[in-house]
Amino acid sequence: MAAKQHAFRDAFGALLLSAALLISADTAAWERLRSDAPERYQVAAGDTLWAIAGRFLYAPWQWPQLWQHNPQIANPHLIYPGDVLVLSDCQGTPCLALERGQQVVKLSPQVRTLPHREAIEPIPMAVARAFLREHRVVDDREGLQELAYVVAGNDHRLISGAGDRIYVRGEVPRLGRVGIFRPSEPYQAMDGTPLGLELISVGQARPISREGDLAQLEVISSHQEVRINDIILPLEERELNSEFMPRAPLNDVEGQIIAVPGGVRFIGRYQIVALDRGTLDGLQAGHVLRVNQQGELINDPRTQELVQLPSTEAGVVMVFKPYDHVSYALVMQASRVLAVGDQVASPTNERAQY
């Protein structure tokens, strides 16, 4: 009898614990909702999934927890202008349903690209795509020695432009267009550790002929003059095709904003920054990081001691192109002006407002 009573108490205790955890999880899920979240929202042209999620959640990157998957509906994750999103209760947790005509479906956390051009994108992809056409990163200066480069212009020209022909030494694709790039400033960690070298686009060219290790190319377009020693690289169709989902890194990441390509001093929403962390630190495209600004150093009015104020959460960035040691990220939210030197870290699950 005593053994049965102990077993009953253990089972009852486990049941209470499970119920408490479930209630706690449900409460936390509802607390992620904005206090002014609409019950219904009609998708408009120009919307992004991030912007829409921001109408419902304090942290828009958490939208997979709000959108549920319904395998009975074909492609339920695609959202179009004119669709109506309805805030619902799914077994005690908040979720979004989609009204399209007479259909009501639940939204999937997966986002894929289909030929339909009107489906809204997760983030402003055009900003990132345009940037990646103009910028590359190589790991080090030694790596440049392995890349094809301009050795001469036609008729002994030192500077070439659109319509001119140039001579290139090294491996060059025989067909299609190639990009012409020029080394820019090296990326360094705050302690001076080299992280990579940025390449800036100069123009595009196409192969004409080849003899031995020398290729002749015609410059098709250029927004800067083409010079001796410029780098030749294949044009890459970047994989920013909406398939990645904003999400937190699997591991704890801590780093800093080390540069703003283009020389901008103050950073705001939808600007691009370089971080001193990359794939070797666990970063992938779609990873979201919070930005913390270091608190001011002040004098205690009574003791005159220097006191460091706590850091303040100032924004959110999303990685869209990581390299080995450095990553390009897009500023998605900024409650104050960001700057080089601001710290980045894995987001917390705590509610944050911007």
Give an overview in words:
Residues 4-25, 69-76, 111-117 and 350-354 have low confidence and may be disordered. With 354 residues, the chain is an alpha+beta fold. The radius of gyration is 26 Å and the shape is globular. The chain has helices at residues 2-31, 49-56, 125-134, 141-144, and strands spanning 40-42, 84-90, 93-100, 103-106, 135-138, 148-153, 159-160, 165-169, 178-188, 194-211, 214-222, 226-227, 231-234, 254-259, 272-275, 288-293, 297-299, 306-308, 312-322, 327-334, 343-345. A 6-stranded antiparallel β-barrel has the order 6-8-11-10-9-13. The chain contains 4 helices and 21 strands.
How are the SSEs placed, and which strands pair?
Layout: H1 2-31, E1 40-42, H2 49-56, E2 84-90, E3 93-100, E4 103-106, H3 125-134, E5 135-138, H4 141-144, E6 148-153, E7 159-160, E8 165-169, E9 178-188, E10 194-211, E11 214-222, E12 226-227, E13 231-234, E14 254-259, E15 272-275, E16 288-293, E17 297-299, E18 306-308, E19 312-322, E20 327-334, E21 343-345
- Mean model confidence by pLDDT: 79
Q: What is the SS-derived class?
A: alpha+beta
In terms of DSSP E residues, the strand content is 35-45%
Query: Roughly how many Å apart are the termini?
Result: 59 Å
The counted number of beta strands is: 21
Residue share in helix: 10-25%
Order of helices and strands: HEHEEEHEHEEEEEEEEEEEEEEEE
Sheet with most strands: strand arrangement: 6-8-11-10-9-13
What is the approximate shape? globular
Taking pLDDT < 50 over at least 5 consecutive residues as the criterion, the unreliable ranges are: 4-25, 69-76, 111-117, 350-354
Q: Round the Cα radius of gyration to an integer and report it.
A: 26 Å
Q: Tell me about the largest β-sheet.
A: 6 strands, antiparallel, barrel
Number of helices: 4
